[in-house]
Amino acid sequence: MSFINNLWQKVLHPTKPWGGVEGGIAIIGGGSWATAIAKIVVGRTGHIGWYMRRSDRIAEFKRLGHNPAYLTTLNFDVSQISFYADLNAVARKYDTLIFVTPSPYLKNHLAKLTADISGKTIVTAVKGIVPDEDMVVSEYFHTRYNVPQDHILCIGGPSHAEEVAMDRLTYLTIGCTAEKTAEAFANVLRSDYVRVETSEDIMGIEYAAVLKNVYAICAGICNGLRYGDNFMAVLLTNCVREMDRYLTAVSPAKRNICDSAYLGDLTVTCYSNFSRNRTFGTMIGRGYSVKSAQLEMKMVAEGYYGTKCMMELNKQAKVDMPILNTVYDILYRQVNPAKAILTLTEKLT
């Protein structure tokens, strides 16, 4: 039994021994970020449970030794993985569940859940809002499934799955109201290519992760409209200010908006060619309709759904958010992107 597994158990389950597979860590989701997190965790613990909703994809994974749909060059030792197509089975067997599903589909996935998870440790790597609930994911697990707040964590920070798959140096932030819990899970993730910090600002990290996707769509639209780097720098400066205003209004906490969980995640999502939200926005800026852009993309641009959710949430917060408003106008009110961005330029400083 490795030191890290000992530490994880002593902090979260002090009366429960590791016991091999039982009580371990399971991944919920089969996309690129889920695959990258699975690589990190299994590399540290030697075993994971892994839920994928499609049994045919599990069969292909076992045959090929890699995810057949995402990060296909990343190979796994499948003897270290217990696969499940039954969400309740994996939820009953494992004590720590890492949810890594696109936010628009999370609620539908959880509709299948009948197992009691109130005593589990829940980790959310979902960078979005729960549809129709207007809650960040940690809040939803606490209110809907009675998971104590100090048993809920989030994974934040600039972290493209493609770069994790290539062992490129990545900095993550683990958010949790309980410092010891955050530190224990941080140790599960730390490696030569993954460095991890902890923070008590779980809701701030989650809201920042939603907003950065919205802002990346805006950056992509501007890129598609051929705005240059000079303007992009001004846009991102204003995105940081807008994010800071919102976080301060809805989740007051001692935070530095320049930390990697906020500014870092925003920057990589707005600039990187790996960013699906930037790609989606670029297509809109080049003249694609929203529907045609969604059809052409193979992965979900969560910022599209996040934009609508954040507009609903801001009806209560009433924060000045001209960039959010502009993206909403383009995506949901069919305002001409060139005209909308030109109007936005007059509001930026």
TrEMBL record:
GO BP terms in the entry: carbohydrate metabolic process; glycerol-3-phosphate catabolic process; phospholipid biosynthetic process
Gene Ontology CC terms: cytosol
Domain Glycerol-3-phosphate dehydrogenase NAD-dependent N-terminal, chain residue ranges per copy: 25-181
EC numbers on record: 1.1.1.94
Active site residues per record: K212 (proton acceptor)
Keyword Nucleus found: no
Enzyme class: oxidoreductase
InterPro entries, alphabetized: 6-PGluconate_DH-like_C_sf, 6PGD_dom2, G3P_DH_NAD-dep, G3P_DH_NAD-dep_C, G3P_DH_NAD-dep_N, NAD(P)-bd_dom_sf
Domain Glycerol-3-phosphate dehydrogenase NAD-dependent C-terminal as annotated: residue spans: 201-341
Molecular-function annotations in GO: glycerol-3-phosphate dehydrogenase (NADP+) activity; NAD binding
Keyword Oxidoreductase assigned: yes
Annotated substrate binding sites: K127, R276, N277
Keywords: Lipid biosynthesis, Lipid metabolism, NAD, Oxidoreductase, Phospholipid biosynthesis, Phospholipid metabolism
Pfam families associated with the record: NAD_Gly3P_dh_C, NAD_Gly3P_dh_N
Top-rank taxon, per record: Bacteria
Reactions mediated catalytically: sn-glycerol 3-phosphate + NADP(+) = dihydroxyacetone phosphate + NADPH + H(+)
Residues holding NAD(+): A161, R276
Family: Belongs to the NAD-dependent glycerol-3-phosphate dehydrogenase family.
Name of the featured protein: Glycerol-3-phosphate dehydrogenase
Species, as recorded: Hallella multisaccharivorax DSM 17128
